[in-house]
Design a protein that fits this description.
The structure holds two protein chains of two kinds. Chain A is an alpha+beta fold. Chain A is 23% helix and 37% strand. In chain A, the strands form two sheets. In chain A, strands 1-2-3-9-8-5 form a six-stranded antiparallel beta sheet. Chain A has a three-stranded antiparallel beta sheet with strand order 4-6-7. The longest helix of chain A has 9 residues. The termini of chain A are far apart. By secondary structure, chain B is of the alpha+beta class. Chain B has nine helices and 19 strands. In chain B, strands 10-11-12-9-3-13 form a six-stranded mixed beta sheet, sandwiched between helices. Chain B has a six-stranded antiparallel β-barrel with strand order 14-17-16-15-18-19. The radius of gyration of chain B is 20 Å and the shape is globular. Chain B starts with 9 loop residues before the first helix and ends in a 12-residue tail after the last strand. The chains are: A alpha+beta, B alpha+beta.
């Protein structure tokens, strides 16, 4: 069974069998507006929690996507480069950004639960 | 946020669900629920309504306001025919660009009507009043509303609210009645499309805007799409693509320096502008990949030497590709020159390209 947690930078992380899938939340996608460009990391790249991992740009602005957890990238979602609008259509499903093999579970455990994240967003 | 100024349409923006942002001291709509992409494409396909009431409207009074205005601009103001509007550069004493603006001679009226940029309006009119002292006086009308209706359906839409208005051609201006309100209507805009700018009393702003929005072809458009539309049209944004660090030659706006004025050499900085060789030039730039290059992105030659900087850049929805403009050293300004844009530390290939990126569709006849 996978478990999903959320970062203050508005990424979601879903972990299943030591592999974390990372994307941006519905809230983040709405704040960005129409997404027109996405750059995802390549397989094999080592990511450190809090470091830059991907780029997402809307018509108006460019934003970094930070790695909420440390690990080695196993796959970037190549489909997003061809169809960046997917990020607005299904940010917390189809439009995942990348998958990483976790180097430890500690960082994931410190992220917010859905209830905590919803509360966090309400306070913004 | 409390010190932000509001245009006469502020309440309407909130009612329409706009996302508001601070811009030039005003609380302005950056986008409505449709979003920037749809708003941009709708304007090119049908018609979009923009609130540009934050811009600085004023009247210039005097014995010969046109002659007086030539003290601060290299445009041909004296030669402008009544009932017409023209683009001009406001130059400071050194001949660099203090602002860009539109000036109008209304049929049968002595006063000239001016529109300058929002962020510079107080300073502009103080400067103009000072330079023209003794010859003309400025009456600002920052209380008036200014609406822009832009897009291929703009003519048909406005015709319903102001019968006869569709006969107006590009850069012509008339006083007319729009939805029952007295207005100054020009056939011009800032999107590259056919369209109008409609100046009305502040108190009439909402009434006219609601009448226009009542047409099924019209959507409200925010500043986000206004920016992407003007960038595709190759039009400068003051404070970004032009400012007091550049002169008209560097900005490749010499078309706005009139032939007669070049001969008379009587405008600020004439010698530098006319006799100097610009070391850098404003050019259009098309990134070859998909990544947009934003303002301040360094531009390098193929050896990696930085030769310029992007001043406006983003995604062009009508081209479905990134678009930009910026300044490069003069030897790199020729169309087709291959350069690199340094985006997030990496060189991205790009080329110098002619503007507009999307052909203008003005109603010239």
């Amino acid at each position: 069974m996978s478990e999903t947690r959320y970062s203050k930078d508005h990424e979601w992380v879903s972990v299943d069998g030591g592999i974390a899938t990372v994307g941006i939340t519905q809230y983040a996608a709405e704040q960005l507006g129409d997404v027109v460009f996405v750059e995802v990391p390549e397989a094999g790249r080592a990511l450190n929690a809090g470091g830059e991992a991907a780029v997402v740009e809307s018509v108006k602005a460019a934003s970094e996507v930070y790695a909420p957890v440390s690990g080695t990238v196993t796959e970037g979602n190549a489909a997003l480069a061809d169809d960046p609008a997917k990020v607005n259509a299904d940010p917390e499903g189809d439009a995942w950004f990348f998958k990483v093999k976790l180097s430890s579970n500690d960082e994931f455990a410190k992220l917010m639960t859905r209830a905590q994240y919803d509360e966090f967003v309400k306070g913004l | 946020m409390t010190d932000l100024r509001k245009t006469p349409l502020h309440a309407l923006h909130l009612e329409l669900g706009a996302k508001m942002v601070p811009f030039s001291g005003y609380d302005m709509p950056v986008q409505y629920p449709a979003g920037i992409l749809k708003e941009h494409l709708h304007t090119r396909e049908k018609a979009g309504l923009f609130d540009v009431s934050h811009m600085g409207q004023a009247f210039l009074k005097g014995a010969d306001p046109a002659k007086a205005l030539e003290r601060v601009t290299p445009a041909d103001v004296v030669g402008l025919k009544p009932g017409m509007q023209r683009y001009g550069l406001l130059l400071n004493e050194a001949g660099t660009i203090k602002d860009d603006f539109m000036f109008t001679k209304l049929e049968g009226e002595a006063d000239m009507y001016l529109v300058v940029n929002a962020g510079t309006k107080e300073g502009d009119y103080e400067y103009i009043a000072g330079k023209l002292a003794g010859a003309a006086t400025v009456t600002t009308r920052f209380d008036r509303a200014l609406l822009a209706l832009q897009g291929p359906r703009a003519g048909a839409v406005l015709e319903k609210l102001s019968p006869g208005i569709d006969a107006l051609t590009f850069m012509h201006v008339v006083r007319a009645t729009v939805a029952g309100c007295p207005a100054i209507v020009s056939r011009s805009g800032y999107t590259g499309e056919d369209g109008f700018e409609i100046s009305i009393e502040g108190a009439d702003g909402e009434r006219v805007a609601r009448a226009l929005l009542g047409d099924a072809d019209v959507l409200p458009i925010g500043l986000g799409a206004r920016d992407s539309l003007r960038l595709e049209a190759g039009l400068c944004l003051y404070g970004h693509d032009i400012d007091e660090s550049v002169n008209p030659a560097e900005a490749t706006l010499m078309w706005s320096v009139a032939k007669r004025r070049r001969a008379e050499r009587d405008f600020p900085g004439a010698a530098t502008i006319l006799d100097g060789r610009p070391r850098k030039k404003r050019v259009g730039i098309l990134p070859i990949g998909k990544a947009p290059a934003r303002e301040h992105t360094p531009i390098a030659d193929k050896s990696g030497r930085v030769v310029g900087e992007i001043t406006s850049g983003g995604f062009g929805p009508s081209l479905n590709a990134p678009v930009a403009m910026g300044y490069v050293e003069a030897e790199f300004a020729a169309d087709g020159t291959h350069l690199d844009l340094i985006v997030r530390g990496k060189p991205m290939p790009a080329r110098v390209a002619p503007m507009p990126f999307v052909p203008h569709r003005y109603k010239r006849t």
